[in-house]
């Protein structure tokens, strides 16, 4: 039987594995993820997509974001207005102002025009067979997906992040996980 890992230890191990990924292998893996996400978007009705700006070795999907307007899809980015609250989503285009949000993550500076995304990309440090997401431990996606209306949720991960950990009561499984 597979050993259930402690979330904190798993985060450390998987973040180290991600940092060790050579740049050219990462570029190729990111391109494969982008192709699969592109196909998913072609198969689903999405007008407003909640994305993310890659940090800490996350898959970089910025090339795909650049194609979204021509496909009739607007990119939104998440903002933490207050800690311990769900994410809100703001329209963003390359060049629009960014600043650290209440969680310390770079996010759009714009405030006020909060939109409900049709689908959200949730970058995963790890994920399980049951589509549970291992994030940075802030619980922001869990809080966001616990709300109604709930957007479609797409975990974005490297395949080596597949792991096994026990779900906590607040962990919301994602609808789909796209990997390289
Ligand atoms: P992550 O999903 O980012 O890896 P965790 O699942 O470990 O992080 O959750 C981090 C914290 O967020 C937990 O302490 C949990 O109590 C809190 N949390 C998650 N979802 C909710 C929620 N719906 N309501 C209140 N707190 C939540
Ligand atoms: Mg969680």
Characterise this structure.
The longest helix has 21 residues, at 23-43. The protein starts with 6 loop residues before the first helix and ends with a strand. It is an alpha/beta fold and 180 residues long. It has four helices and ten strands. The protein has a single domain, classed as Rossmann fold, CATH 3.40.50.10420. 26% of the residues lie in helices and 20% in strands. A six-stranded mixed sheet has the order 3-2-1-6-9-10. The chain has a two-stranded antiparallel sheet with strand order 4-5. Strands 7-8 form a two-stranded antiparallel ribbon.
Poorly predicted runs of 5 or more residues: none
Strand content: 15-25%
Helix content: 25-40%
Please write the string of helix (H) and strand (E) elements: HHEHEEEEEEEHEE
- The top-level CATH class is Alpha Beta
Gyration radius, to the nearest Å?
16 Å
- Would you count the extended β strands for me? 10
Mean of pLDDT: 96
Most strands sheet: 6 strands, mixed
Instruction: State the separation between the terminal residues, measured CA to CA.
Output: 26 Å
CATH architecture: 3-Layer(aba) Sandwich
Helix count, DSSP H or I runs of 4 or more residues: 4
Net shape: globular
* Ligands, deduplicated: adenosine-5'-diphosphate, magnesium ion
CATH topology: Rossmann fold
Total domain count: 1
Instruction: Provide the spatial order of strands within the biggest beta sheet.
Output: 3-2-1-6-9-10
Kindly report the name of the CATH homologous superfamily: NagB/RpiA/CoA transferase-like
Please give the oligomerization state of what you see.
Answer: single chain
């Amino acid at each position: 039987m597979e050993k259930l890992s402690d979330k904190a230890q798993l985060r450390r191990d998987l973040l180290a594995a991600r940092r060790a990924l050579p740049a050219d292998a990462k570029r190729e893996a990111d391109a494969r993820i982008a192709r699969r996400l592109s196909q998913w978007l072609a198969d689903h009705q999405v007008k407003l997509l909640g994305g993310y700006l890659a940090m800490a070795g996350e898959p970089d999907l910025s090339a795909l974001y650049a194609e979204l307007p021509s496909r009739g899809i607007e990119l939104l980015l998440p903002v933490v207005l207050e800690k311990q609250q769900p994410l809100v989503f703001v329209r963003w285009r390359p060049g629009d102002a960014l600043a650290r949000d209440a969680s310390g993550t770079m996010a759009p500076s714009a405030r006020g025009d909060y939109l409900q995304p049709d689908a959200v990309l949730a970058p995963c440090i790890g994920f399980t067979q049951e589509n549970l997401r291992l994030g940075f431990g802030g619980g922001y996606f869990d809080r966001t997906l616990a709300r109604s209306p709930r957007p479609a949720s797409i975990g974005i991960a490297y395949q080596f992040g597949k792991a096994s950990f026990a779900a906590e009561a607040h962990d919301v499984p994602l609808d789909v996980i796209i990997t390289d």
